[in-house]
Amino acid sequence: MRKVFLIQAEGKEKVIMLLRRHWFVILTKILLWGLVAILPVIFYFLMHDFLVIIIFNEAMQAIFILSVSLYYMYVWLFAFYAFIDYYLDVWVVSTERIVNVEQKGLFSREISEQKLSRIQDVTSEITGFFPTILDYGTVHIQTAGEQARFVFKQVPNPRAVAKKIIMIIEQNRKYHQMLDEEEGRQK
Amino acid sequence: MEIPLAIFYYIYAAAVLVFLIFTLFNIYHLMRFGYLTISNILIVIFYIFGSVAILAISWDYIGAINWHQSIQIISTLNAGYL
Lengths: 187, 82
Fold this sequence. Notes:
The complex is a heterodimer. Chain A is α+β, with helices and mostly antiparallel strands. Chain A has helices spanning 2-6, 23-46, 48-54, 58-88, 129-134, 158-186, and strands at residues 15-19, 90-94, 97-103, 109-115, 119-125, 136-143, 149-156. Chain A has six helices and seven strands, in the order αβαααββββαββα. In chain A, the strands form two sheets. Chain A has a four-stranded antiparallel beta sheet. In chain A, strands 5-6-7 form a three-stranded antiparallel beta sheet. In chain A, α2 (23-46) packs antiparallel against α4 (58-88). The longest helix of chain A has 31 residues, at 58-88. Chain A is elongated and about 90 Å long. Chain B has helices spanning 6-34, 38-62, 73-81; strands at residues 2-4, 70-72. Chain B starts with a strand and ends with a helix. Chains A and B meet through α1 and α4 of A and α1, α2 and α3 of B.
């Protein structure tokens, strides 16, 4: 149901694939922000004696409390933003086109699309230790349009995705060939 | 030199306001572009719950502070090291 909302379907167009980055990508971000969250606790235990000297009166305690509160507030905010950045970057492959939806910062969202008939080449690439183990990587889509290359970043099963896109392009070509022939016959 | 402690409180309040504005933008983005799925709603609720928890715990500590006092910078720093 969600797939339908992401792009405005044209005619008999159907959404075949909806891709996001691999779950490991968001897991690393969550772990990173988790580490940032426990840093003050580690700092507190390491620098306990020094902190006792600095936070010796009520005024300094107040500043310390405000600082810690702000620190955790913004760690929480940035962690949530990291999730939104992951969640809202979507690549859609339909029977007619590919759509690239990218959230760039909080106030910028880029949506680009290309017709399947303009795609010239599809390649997949897996580089690195974790991508090889967990099978995620990049799918490069070479097109004849203004935006010469579409890149599906860190998507799961890139080889299977590339194969499926090639298959969909082939089906799309056959379908349009059939429509053209039918149109020719009617004329 | 004396600085009223309340200044830090106002700076903190401004930072909380910025936090709330960005929180609203984040939630708006997720609801507007991520669509109303159950997982989406649960994530938003989880985030709001976390935010409220941080603010409530902070308020618990901040409420107990006397904000009418001042900090004497030089003597405070000196006293800290003596």
